[in-house]
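Hi there,

I know you've been waiting on this one. I reran it after we fixed the sequence typo, so this is the corrected version. Both the input and the resulting structure follow.
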Amino acid sequence: MPIRHSTKRLLSKLAWHAYNIYRKGLDYDTQLSRTFEILDAPREVIEAFQAQRLERLLQHAYQTTPYYREFLRPAHSDISRIPTLEKQDIREQLDRLYSTAFTRKQRIRNATGGSTGTPLTFYQDRNYWNQRNLSVYYFDQWAGWNFGEPQLIIWGTLADLGKDSHWKHQLNNFWRNQYWLNGFRLTDTAMSAAFEKMNQCQPQTLLAYPSSLYQFAKFIFENGLTSLCKLKGIIASAEMLHPHYRTLAEYVFKTKVYNRYGSREVGLIAMECAEGRMHINCRDLYLEIESPDPYTEPGEILITQLNNYAMPFIRYRIGDVGRLSDEMCPCGNDLPILAELLGRTTATFRTRSGTLIHGGYFTQQFYDIDGVTQFQIIQESLKHCVLKVVTDEKWTEATRRFLVQSIQDALGMTVVVTVEVVDEIPLPPSGKREYTISKVSGDVEDL
């Protein structure tokens, strides 16, 4: 007999609490209350808290991190004197960026394809993840999420693919009260099943890649389907939220889309409030705009992560462009506002059978690949794909075959994949490299 929705919510809420006690300690409730208190505080309290955390991080970096010792002094730690941390610095200086206060076992490995298409490996610690999750809990409640409430997730990582029947995956979905649609493979069959599941389980929120959200909303719209669930809000994250994505999703689901900005390297950076302003997560990071006047002239975003002591990210050039606002938000929250966010995009590829493949699938193929320092994948047609790579001495024929196979696994075995080894991949006029590009059109016009 199916568990009633109210019983499932209660069980999930209790499971969330037990999970957080296990991960964060017996004082978890106090930590969560303190998180909400700081993020709801007046501007001067927020800035004082941030300054204190920043000073503590800089002292830690000076004392325990070889890379930063040459830039910092034990007194008068002035962050503006520290050179920006580039992705290339991380690749070349990784061993010197570790904090000597952490053992190898205490460092948690992570990786990203990078918004410029260059694979990047880095490390975080358990406290970073604990603090990151506390802030995510706070900001996601702006969109209506809460512990135990059912949620539909349109997402995808390589670790998720093919694991739907795995008992651990099923158990996690059960106690979290989450329902997944693989954002990497949006077939009509999968979207139809997800729509039926959504009507059955009545999720309160939806979390999705913006492009995947758009494709799901377009499927519902074009098939004349009517959603029976009453979503409180939709959280769009990990890509640029284009206006036509938002317009269609809000029209189809009859609720607001909240844009969430973050990255694997530094966590949640900012999130949109009910008034449509993007508030900066000052509890967990210090954000700078590299511009003569960050309030009038957009510039590159620099992030200092305040919680990752295992491998400090200080003035990290994340690869995005933005502009600040000096306004106070009508929503009543005093967190500073990121007025503009420019340049984040990921293409959606299409197969001959009509299956949609999220560009993030291809990016993740490069996470642990040796021999590739930069890449770009271009879907020229349904039959032809070009892979451009900048290689180093570790590049092998086996690597080439693996990457071709990975692309064909997604797009079809008959797709011709041309591998071009190049000296460099030039930046487009926008200054923001597109690492996945599809020239196969399939979108409909805006409503």
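Quick highlight: Residues 158-164, 443-447 have pLDDT under 50 and may be disordered.

Best,
R. S.
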